Each structure stands twice: as structure tokens, then as C-alpha cells.
Amino acid sequence: MTTIPSARETADQVATAIRTRRSTIRLTGPAPGPHELLDLLAAAPTADLAEKIIAKHVRAPLILALVFQPRDHPTIPRWEQLAATSAMATTLLLLLGGIWYGGPYPDAPQVRKHLGVGDGEQLLGYLYIGTPIPGEEPRTRVTADVRPKITWLGDTAL
Ligand SMILES: Cc1cc2nc3c(=O)[nH]c(=O)nc-3n(C[C@H](O)[C@H](O)[C@H](O)COP(=O)(O)O)c2cc1C
Q1: What is the pLDDT of residues 12-45, one digit of tens each?
Q2: Does the structure show a pLDDT above 90 at 110?
Q3: Alpha-carbon distance values, 16 to 12, 13, 21, 72, 157 (Å)
Q4: Gap from CA of 71 to ligand 1 centroid (Å)
Q5: To test the ligand 1 pocket, which listed residue (20, 23, 94, 127) has its Cβ within 8 A of the most ligand atoms?
Q6: Could you tell me the distance, in angstroms and rounded to a whole number, from the CA of residue 22 to the centre of ligand 1?
Q7: Which residue is closest in CA terms to ligand 1's atom 14?
Q8: 30: preceding bond cis by omega (within 30 degrees)
Q9: Which CATH number fits domain 22-149: 3.40.109.10, 3.40.718.10, 3.40.50.360, 3.30.300.30?
Q10: Ligand 1: residues whose CB is within 6 Å?
């Protein structure tokens, strides 16, 4: 019998994944194969599927080029579609492991042509996917003081 974790357990696991995730620069295999990749992409949907993904193996076991495809929509403006696509990319990094690179020359005609980025589309960079090199320590996480970034409305202030 499959035991479905409680919402609390799931929330704890997600919180642990977020707290321990590190972008990893040097990657090795394994990386997801085509079937696993499709499954994982399906698990990280956006409200509006304003993205396409081009998969290739080059400097990491798997590189996904993330292409933003804004659509005219009566209620969802372009910025919201971009926000949804970025959120999806972050979820994918949690699922897959790796690092998001902007990469050079995202607007260069040669790059756009090579990747098949169409008119009105925008290359959002690359997700380098793979497995951390065994024995290499993850990069240390710098704990930022986020208090100056928070504006409290009302009496609460820390
Ligand atoms: C859209 C986007 C583009 C990025 N481009 C680069 C890049 O070109 N080079 C780089 O070193 N880091 C880049 N980063 C930052 C890394 O992906 C990563 O977030 C950063 O190194 C912090 O590590 P952390 O995710 O473990 O906190 C980019 C991040 C985002 C969201």
C-alpha cells in the first residue's frame, strides 16, 4: 500500500530541499534521460505555459535552453508570464539540480538561429543539469540579512 505523506511532512521535505539546495557549477553524470526529463518537466508546470525548452548535452551532462514565449492574453500581462516561467525554472532546479546561467550573447542572431528562438521569443539562459562531482563540497551559502528588504505594514517590525 502506498502511504501518501501528510501535507506537513511534504512541507517539511520541501523546506529542507529549499534550505539545502545549492547551485552547482561543476557537474557530472548522471543527468535525466529523455523520459525522466519529460516526467520532471510535466511536474513543474506554470499557470500559462509560456516557455519552451531545448535540450542538449554539451558542457554539462544536460543543458536546457529556456525560451520565453509570451502570448497575448486578455488578463495575464507579459511580466506575469515571465514571472511564472522563472518560477517554473526555479522549481526545475529543485527537481533536477544544477545551475541557471544567463550565458553570453542571448540576443545574438547566431545564438537565436542555432537554438531556433523565434521572433517575439526571448532566451532566458540555460539550466545546466547534472550531478555534483562526488567528494566536492557544495558552495557555502552566504546568509544575507534580509531585514532591509522587508517593508512591514502596520506595527510589526523586526
Ligand atoms: C536568470 C539567471 C541568470 C544567471 N546567470 C548567471 C551567470 O551567467 N553566471 C553565474 O555565475 N551565475 C548566474 N546566475 C546565478 C546562479 O544561477 C546562482 O543562482 C548563484 O550562483 C547563487 O547560487 P545559489 O542558487 O546556490 O544561491 C544566474 C541566475 C539567474 C536566476
Answers
A1: 888 888 888 888 889 999 999 888 888 888 887 6
A2: yes
A3: 6, 5, 8, 38, 27
A4: 26
A5: 23
A6: 10
A7: 101
A8: yes
A9: 3.40.109.10
A10: 22-23, 99-103, 125
